[in-house]
Amino acid sequence: MSDLVLRFLIGGMVVSLFALISDVLRPRSFAGIFGAAPSIALATLGLTIVKEGPQYASIEARSMVLGAIGFLVYAICVCRLLARSSTAALVATVGLLPVWAAVSFSLWFLLVRSSS
Amino acid sequence: MIELKLSSIKDSRPREYIIRFVFGGVCTVLAGLVAKKYGPGVGGLFLAFPAIFPAGASLIESHEKKRKAKIGYDGTTRGRLAASVESSGTSIGCLALVGFALVVWLGVPHANAFTVMVAAAAVWLLLAATLWAAYRHRIFHRSTPDS
Question: What is the pLDDT averaged over residues B99-122?
Fold first, then answer.
């Protein structure tokens, strides 16, 4: 339980910090890179290494590569949708989350699961 | 040119910071729980979950709308386009995120964990800034406004 509370507090703080950095930076396209900051990874990987060991963290990071590719495809889709339609930002960003899941899990099944 | 605009902190209300804190905390806890239940292979995917992005994009849209409304204009399109520009930056950050994950994946089993994490964060920032500069250069040559 205390582990979950610790994760919650560290995660909240790291994500808020990156959000704050993104808020004060201009131009917007540069501030946008902080939308893909490794916030969750920085918040959790340290704890994971201490509790589960470096090999476990390394396996997580290998999958993170695929999750990041999924995020890339998702962000491009959001960018195009917002530029070319009248969809609101919240609808576009939340509505397209299945794109992240589809790309990430498909790559994981194709490249990791099928080879193990 | 990259600038710090500290006055934009005042655009966000305390409630918006609380929402980001709670959302970030929940996403971090969920990533840990998924790894515990389904193993590090699946859990690792959630280390690159777009945790901060939806809230950030919608806040930018609403701030732009409010800014335009103050001077009597409808900022709906302006707000949406600002969020789109921010998303283009986020896609650059995603490429750098791949670099971060590669450094941790290959480095953590062989070197001091703290050193690897610092190196990975530095690689992310350096890669993101370099790719953004290249993107900006391309945009500049098309003379497209971007701020």
Answer: 95
**Cα of B136 vs its chain's centroid, Å:** 17
Q: How many Cβ atoms are within 10 Å of A94's Cβ, its own excluded?
A: 16
Domain ranges within chain A, ordered by starting residue: 1-52, 62-116
CA distance B85 to A12: 25
Residue B87 pLDDT level (bands cut at 50, 70, 90)? very high
B142 exposure class (CB count in 10 Å sphere: 0-12, 13-18, 19+) = exposed
Shortest distance, CA A47 to any CA of chain B (angstroms): 10
**Cα separation of the two ends of chain B:** 11
Which residues from chain B sit within 8 angstroms of residue A8, using beta carbons? 25-26, 28-29
Res. B141 pLDDT band, cuts 50 70 90: low
CB-defined contacts A:B, below 8 A: 340
Predicted TM-score of the model (pTM): 0.90
The answer on pLDDT for B9 being more than 80 is no
Tokens read off for B107? 């480095």
Q: Per-residue pLDDT tens for A64-75?
A: 999 999 999 999
Q: Do B54 and A49 touch (CB under 8 A)?
A: no
Give all strands (DSSP E) within chain B, no chain letters: 3-4
Residues 57 to 116 of B: which have CB under 8 A from any A CB? Answer: 57-58, 60-61, 76-77, 79-98, 100-102, 104-106, 108-109, 113-114
Q: Rounded CA gap, B92 and B87, in Å? A: 9
DSSP state of A109: I
Q: What's the ipTM? A: 0.93
